[in-house]
């Protein structure tokens, strides 16, 4: 039987991806930590190894077809065939529609959607061979619409349709595909939002927390826990779902 204990997490140098990589390592997976640069990814991989886990760092742009092919082959050779994939890499290029450049639109769709497509297509070969697999895609509450995020909302809503379609296509091979849609999570991504709008990060965090029913913003580990559930053996009958992890019912 094929060994199915290798996970690959994209955008895992920091934030939600880093927390997810560390969580999956604690769950017993060998983890490939992929980010734009191998050096950036190495921080997370080293932390996993220090905790007694097994991890490698990989540098690749998830939207670059050749880089993705090379990266997935490298992971299969060094760690084992990846059967768990977390499509987490992402960027923001916020602006109101009338100010949004074509590049802002294309860049966001390129990383989130094309990136998830290329990574999933490369990894499914290993999942189908193993007759087992898990794909977890990062969507967002922004999929429901968010001012200044026409590009990002379209990408994150697109991730949901992508998730449901992959669930249908890959289910017969023992592969489940689900999405986690976070609300406001304290990461470099949201810190950059505060900088862009000229508000101290602590102020933004306090304002966001007030609007959340559980009265706090999310932490990367909140999302990692949801990914861990979808990746688990117990979740084998859960597929094509979107779980909003937002401290309230939005979604
Ligand atoms: P983050 O702190 O900005 O981390 C994202 C990581 O992805 C960075 O290390 C970034 O590398 C990497 N990355 C960007 N483009 C890439 C590419 N083309 N190929 C490979 N790696 C790439 O973001 P985060 O807050 O942890 O968010 C992670 C995911 O959750 C994203 O998909 C995001 O849209 C989603 N999400 C976040 C929130 C939130 O409130 N934070 C809410 C809902 C959904 P560089 O540093 O080199 O750019």
From TrEMBL:
GO terms for biological process: fatty acid elongation. The keyword Phosphoprotein does not apply. Residues 5-183 form the Ketoreductase domain. It holds the Pfam family adh_short_C2. GO terms for molecular function: oxidoreductase activity, acting on the CH-OH group of donors, NAD or NADP as acceptor. Coiled coil: none annotated. Keywords: NADP, Oxidoreductase. Gene3D superfamilies: NAD(P)-binding Rossmann-like Domain. Belongs to the short-chain dehydrogenases/reductases (SDR) family. This is 3-oxoacyl-ACP reductase.
């Amino acid at each position: 039987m094929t060994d199915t204990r290798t996970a690959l997490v994209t955008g895992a140098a920091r934030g939600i991806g880093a927390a997810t990589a560390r969580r999956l390592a604690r769950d017993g997976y060998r983890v490939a930590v992929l980010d734009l640069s191998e050096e950036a990814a190495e921080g997370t991989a080293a932390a996993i190894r220090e905790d007694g886990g097994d991890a490698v760092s990989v540098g690749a742009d998830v939207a670059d077809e050749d880089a993705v092919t090379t990266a997935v082959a490298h992971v299969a050779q060094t760690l084992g065939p990846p059967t768990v994939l977390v499509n987490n890499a992402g960027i923001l290029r916020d602006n109101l529609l009338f100010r949004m450049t074509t590049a802002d639109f294309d860049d966001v769709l390129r990383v989130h959607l094309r990136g998830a497509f290329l990574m999933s297509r490369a990894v499914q070969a290993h999942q189908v061979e193993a007759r087992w697999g898990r794909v977890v895609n990062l969507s967002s509450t922004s999929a429901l619409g968010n001012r200044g995020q026409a590009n990002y909302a379209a990408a994150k809503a697109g991730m949901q349709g992508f998730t449901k379609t992959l669930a249908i296509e890959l289910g017969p091979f023992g592969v489940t595909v689900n999405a986690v849609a976070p609300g406001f999570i304290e990461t470099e991504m949201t810190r950059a939002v505060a900088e862009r709008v000229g508000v101290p990060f602590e102020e933004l965090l306090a304002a966001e927390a007030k609007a959340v029913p559980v009265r706090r913003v999310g932490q990367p580990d909140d999302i990692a826990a949801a990914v861990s559930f979808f990746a688990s053996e117990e979740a084998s009958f859960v597929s094509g779902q979107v779980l909003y992890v937002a401290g309230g019912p939005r979604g």
